Amino acid sequence: MKATESLQVHIVSHTHWDREWYLTYEQFRLRLVGLIDRLLDMMESQPDYEYFHLDGQTIVLEDYLELRPHQEPRLRALIAQGRILIGPWYDMPDEFLVSGESLVRNLALGHRISRRFGTSMPVGYLPDLFGHVGQMPQILRNFGLDNAILWRGFGGRQAEYWWQSPDGSRVLMMHLPSEGYCNATRVHLDPEAMIDRTALAIRNETARTAVGQVLLMNGVDHVEPHPIIPALARQLAKHLGVSVTHSTLPAYVDAVRSAVAQDGAGTSLEVITGELRGGEDYANLLPGVFSARVYIKQANARVQALLEKRAEPLATFASMLGAAYPADELRYAWKTLLQNHPHDSICGCSIDAVHEENMTRFARAEQVARAVVDQSAEVIARAVPAGPPGTLRLIAVNTTAEPVSGVVQAYVDVPYESDEPRRVVDPGALDAPVRFWPKDTRIAGIATHEGQPAPFQVLSVEESRPVVMSRYETPWILRGRRHHVVWQGQVPACGYATFDAVFATTSVSPGAGATATDVRVDGRTAENEHVRIAINDDGTVDVEDKRSDVRYQRCGTLEDVGDVGDEYNYSPPATDRRITSADLTDVRITAGDAGPLRASFRIDGNLALPAAITPDRSRRSDEVVINAVSIIVTLDAGSPRVGWRIAIDNRSADHRLRLLFPTGVDEITEVRAETAFGVARRPARRERPEHVRIEVPVSYGPTASFTEAGSDCAGAILFGEGLSEYEAVPGDDGRVSTLALTLLRCVGYLSREDLILRPSGHAGPGLATPGAQCPGRHEFHLAFEPRGDAPSNGTLFRRAASFATPPLVVPAVGAGGQQPATSTFLQIEAGPGDVVLSACHRAEEHDGIIVRMFNADDTPAMVHVTSKTPVNAGAAVDFLERDRHSLPVQNGGVDAQVPPYGIVTMRMT
To answer: Do residues 223 and 15 make contact, with C-beta atoms less than 8 angstroms apart?
Structure first.
């Protein structure tokens, strides 16, 4: 703490703009328009009101100017003068519910928009995010930002720290007071008391600063600037005898940075490492948002993966074959997706109308992304040679950095002649030729492009209505049969392989040339060389790991409990009864696919759950309703992974439904879960303190595509699509040995003050949100994999990629090109060490291909990256694609070192 006479007090005027929350986007936008209208008038007429911050978000500029385009010159002028501060974000996301790539694209878009209007604020502004990922300092550094201002997730009582990522990237962290970004909000409401109120805030902050710099945040959610602030600063300076200025966040950061550098205070600042997901006695963390409105998280995960793992790589591959890169289409899809990432949107903690609009945005982004995928895949399919006569060529494209060797899946439409009058179509008007097959044609085999038969299995054949699109004709709706087929195949990393579907008009036994990796089915059991599964009477599954002889009993147990909480927090009722798979009634277990490549079992049953909570919210009601449940469990040849597809017709309210899996060990002490550009290691359980001031610490936490726990020699990995909340829970013996994934958390209010887990009161307005009860049908896709020795972090990412991004198979209709029948577009060789491919796309503002990789482990990795097209130069670039330094080019590729836990972005030209 500095002496009072050397203090510098910075009053920063701002608004915190939740784009949509307890009002809709359009309702809040009208308030935003009024705010900026009056801000422009005031700043032009009152020169001494020098600065105002637009919450670090550039999306507000677009929102405002869409309704006030004629105001752009006035707005631009004030931004150019440095009086209105903008950026660095596009919008303020949640860090745990979006991918690392989404965080990068968000900041990159914010910087690009800022450049169009002026300059981005050089501050890593994170004022109201519900915790912070451990790689955020490295992310910020890749945008040229050496600092961060934040609030939630950390409970230190000082104002200044160093915050360091696992790779060693460090930023100067300024920790907001316990009041957050509004410790000087209402000082102007009572003129007689404003000096005393502000003086008290200054005394509080003086006790926190190690460098004599005091930050007063004059603003809060959706408030407008008040003209009295410059006068207040002058009066405070006179009254207190200290330096008080109407200031900016960059000026405050500069002053802290300068003080740290000048007097050596930086050496005494505490270094905080990794993710910030604590400090509940300082500011509430609101962890229940990870399971609120799970359908929102599922939609986001689907579209995010579609853009990152499908559309961008496929479009890049197609461009290597001469196709135009759809930069504008991808830019639009990304922007639309990012508009759903503000923390009140992606967290599912807004009114129903907001989340209805979220789903519309997800649909728009998904439609564009799927169109890019289809168009790009068609370019690749046309480039390969045609298959043998009488066959249908299929092309399997792998967009991951790992080669695929195992079961490949496809849905193949086979058009047939019908009795309906055939429409006359000029073949030259079609984008691709149409071939009709005899009506009783069936897929009778799959062959490699070299003509070798592959073990295969037809899972189903259904009537379909394939559609032929043309630029010159109206759509042509055909009749056909859709074959769901799997086969054993190999597909290179970041490349493709071709296969040929062989047809017959007679029944053919699948699986010709079966191998030792077959799945064998006997009654309710199935096994391959890795695992044996057995379906229990209640629909749970016993899994035996043949490699370790560990038995995992009752995998996939349903668990339902009451929830009297809100969108921010799970809160158990005072009295409750736990309902599990053992309570499932009318259970019907039927064998489905019987091998040789896939075995499946279907479990149907009814789960009788309380209809809702009682009016006094102390327990669940005696009235019960039936929730129909359908579970499909699958096991593929050669795979140690057991898949679950679950559908539930949710007719109950005020409850939480989870799926439980044993880890195969007596007790676990920590859990690993995917996070942005890495893996988070967290304690399995967090103890509840004797005294709770603000929020009870909880043991459930955020995850993405994988969650893992166990010992050094045994354990389990869970994979999920859009299931963002896990918890390590005690078993019947009280020892923590089970992992839970949340499927549904159903509540009826945006916020409530009477929660066990949040004693401090409301986190938002107490509005009814019946849509948060998540009524209706929901589907979930996840998988369980037993493991022996603890896998590396990089291995976890590889296993998750094979689950989330299997090869995309499309018919090569119109094939007849000169490209090889199998080929690789991008090859990443790493060793020693390992890397994870995060992005592959065309450069935004330069020529070349962007490849982003990260090292999830503590061993440095040397990588050699080659491309299908010649590589003449390579450069390491930051997240804005600005050159850092050149990279050596040799042996046809680019070499780079990826340090432990480091992120490297290269541009290849």
So the answer is: yes
Take residue 578 and report the two structure tokens written for it.
Answer: 């736990």
Instruction: Give the start-to-end residue ranges of the domains of the chain.
Output: 4-279, 391-514, 520-804, 825-909
15, 43 contact by CB (below 8 A): no
Q: Which residue has the tokens 């649909």?
A: 363
Tell me which residue of 225, 273, 14, 221 sits closest to 125, measured CA to CA: 14
391-514: CATH topology is: Immunoglobulin-like (2.60.40)
Residue 88, preceding peptide bond in cis (omega within 30° of 0): yes
**Residue 438 burial (C-beta neighbours within 10 Å; 0-12, 13-18, 19+):** exposed
Residue 718 contacts residue 725 (beta carbons within 8 Å): no
What confidence tier does 1 reach under pLDDT thresholds 50, 70, 90? very low
Integer Cα distance of 409 and 346 in angstroms: 31
Give the Cα separation of 721 and 908 in Å (integer): 32
Q: Please report, for residues 184, 215, 217, 369, the alpha-carbon distance to residue 179 in angstroms, rounded to integers and kept in the order given.
A: 9, 12, 10, 41
Of the ranges 232-236, 247-251, 846-850, which one carries the lowest mean pLDDT score?
232-236
- Rounded Cα distance, 182 and 291, in Å: 28
Average pLDDT for residues 190-196, to the nearest whole number?
A: 74
Cβ of 47: how many Cβ atoms within 10 Å? 9
Complete DSSP assignment for 569-637: -----SS---EEGGG-EEEEEEEEEE-SSEEEEEEEEEEEEESSB-TTSSSB-S-EEEEEEEEEEEEET
pLDDT tens string 633-657:
999 999 999 999 999 999 999 999 9
Is 825-909 the same fold as 4-279? no
In CATH terms, the fold of domain 4-279 is: 7-stranded beta/alpha barrel (3.20.110)
Architecture of 825-909 per CATH?
Sandwich (2.60)
Count of positions (residues) in the chain: 909
Which element (helix H / strand E) includes 301?
A: helix 294-305
Q: In what order do the strands lie in the sheet with 725-730?
A: 579-580, 557-562, 655-662, 736-746, 725-730, 701-702
Q: How far apart are CA 42 and CA 37, in angstroms?
A: 9
**CB within 8 Å of 813: residues ≥ 6 apart:** 381, 432, 433, 434, 435
Nearest to 443 by CA among 464, 461, 455: 461
Give the type of residue at 831. Answer: G
Question: How many other CB atoms are there within 10 angstroms of residue 653's CB atom?
Answer: 23
The SS3 call for residue 413 is strand
pLDDT tens for residues 687-722? 888 888 889 999 999 999 999 999 999 999 999 999
Residue 381 one-letter amino acid: A
How do strand 84-85 and strand 52-53 relate by DSSP bridges?
parallel
pLDDT per position as a tens digit, 15-31 = 999 999 999 999 999 99
Which pair of structure tokens corresponds to residue 510? 């699948």
- Is 355 a residue whose pLDDT tops 90? yes
Q: For the domain with range 520-804, which CATH number is right: 2.70.98.30, 3.40.50.620, 2.40.30.170, 3.65.10.10?
A: 2.70.98.30
Q: Per-residue pLDDT tens for 510-531?
A: 555 445 469 999 999 999 999 9
Per the structure block, which two tokens stand in for 841? Answer: 């796309």
Residue type, 218: N
